[in-house]
Design brief:
By secondary structure, this protein is α/β, with parallel strands linked by helices. The protein has a domain of 214 residues: Aldolase class I (TIM Barrel, Alpha-Beta Barrel), CATH 3.20.20.70. The protein contains 12 helices and 8 strands. An 8-stranded parallel sheet has the order 2-1-8-7-6-5-4-3. Helix 6 links the parallel strand 6 and strand 7. Helix 1 packs across helix 2 and helix 9 packs antiparallel against helix 12. The longest helix is centred in the C-terminal third of the chain and has 21 residues. It is globular.
């Protein structure tokens, strides 16, 4: 792909609607995809952390991607989360997602076991040499082995199929260093932030967009912020960022991640059901009140921010 084809905009790491039995609600997922596209997301990112990818089976993860790609029908690109527990299964996921029409995949570095920078390099080197689809590195140090700058630069320099990084550290100076180190040699390489609270500064220093959980609840806000920055209206973007940060923090505080974001989607009138992890009865009993409170907060966030 050429430089204009690199990932750009706000990609939504969508939650997965579940039915009363805890199974994937295909109709609900299709409706949610349509809702997200209609409300302005630039792309979809199923099987991300907000989508609880570790709580689904490999077959379920494949089915989620199939549904999202089919329902998106080329209206927006699909960045498919392809992280599995080992490199062999991750490559099998890459092959499957390439066959069903995903535009690219995002792969988290090895998780659960702590891996050295050399081990992270070897993992992605194996993927880079064998993937049939473009790869986005997914750096999320809170959950997985970090991908350091020398490793990112080396991978970008040696593997044309490694085309982007999604960084969820929220580290603005580190992102600046990444862009300065990689972009001169790889103008086609995309930089995406996964931390909603610093979306504005990340865009201003040169990020191409974000994969932001808030976009699954209030896609109008994240799209508005992106459009304002593209238009050079940075002062107008500041209060929109403040609203995104407030909402992001509220959704995190409502329940164990990502349940608060599921409640936020419900507050927008989109039924997604409970998450995959059982919750205490007293916590579930408060969900109605939480949804009502979130609805008021979301509506207040949208007032005045969306022209």
């Amino acid at each position: 792909m050429s430089e204009p084809d690199r990932l750009r905009g706000i990609f939504c790491p969508n939650v997965v609607p579940l039915d009363a039995a805890g199974e994937i609600d295909e109709g609900g997922l299709r409706a949610y995809v349509d809702w997200l596209i209609d409300h302005g997301v630039h792309g979809l990112y199923p099987n991300g952390s907000t989508g609880e990818f570790t709580r689904f089976t490999a077959d379920e993860r494949r089915r989620i991607i199939e549904i999202v790609v089919e329902q998106a029908a080329g209206r927006v690109p699909v960045l498919a989360g392809a992280a599995e527990a080992n490199v062999r299964e991750t490559l099998r996921a890459c092959e499957h997602y390439a066959r069903v029409g995903a535009d690219a995949v995002a792969i988290v570095s090895p998780y659960y076991y702590s891996v050295s920078p050399e081990g992270v390099w070897a993992y992605f080197d194996e993927i880079g040499r064998n993937t049939p689809i473009d790869v986005t590195l997914y750096n999320i140090p809170m959950f997985a082995s970090p991908i350091d700058l020398p490793t990112i630069r080396r991978l970008a320099g040696e593997h044309a199929r490694i085309r982007a990084i999604k960084d969820s550290s929220g580290d603005v100076p580190a992102m600046m260093a990444m862009i300065d180190a990689v972009r001169p040699e790889r103008p086609d390489f995309s930089f995406m932030t996964g931390w909603d609270s610093c979306l504005l500064p990340m865009l201003l220093l040169g990020c191409d967009g974000g994969t932001n959980a808030t976009s699954g609840v209030a896609p109008e806000l994240t799209r508005k912020l992106f459009d304002l920055v593209q238009a050079g209206a940075n002062e107008e973007a500041r209060p929109v960022q403040a609203r995104i940060t407030q909402l992001f923090d509220t959704l995190f505080a409502e329940a164990d991640f990502p349940e608060g974001f599921r409640l936020g989607v419900r507050a927008r009138g989109v039924e997604v059901g409970p998450g995959r992890t059982p919750r205490a009865a007293d916590a579930r009993a408060e969900d109605g009140a939480r949804v009502a409170a979130l609805k008021a907060i979301i509506e207040e966030s949208l007032v005045g921010a969306i022209a």
